[in-house]
User: Fold this.
Amino acid sequence: MSEANRLTDHDDIRAWAEARGARPSRVASTADADGGGVLRFDFGDKEEALEEISWDEFFRIFEDSDLALLAQDHTSGGETSRFSKFVQR
Assistant:
């Protein structure tokens, strides 16, 4: 089984996402008056339920929510993995 790395460094998170063609996003229905929401990465074709946001906005929400990213580099078969999950620090 492949392991996931716990990432909090913004440069590491952005590099991981960009290497996989991911766009910083949030679940559109969770956006609130404070500009928060549930973070996601959008891969490939745009998902209608997701709202693309800037990296600055993404990391503001990330820090305000005190999150870390669990990110897998490779699958058990050695291929590039897109598995990620946001968790509390």
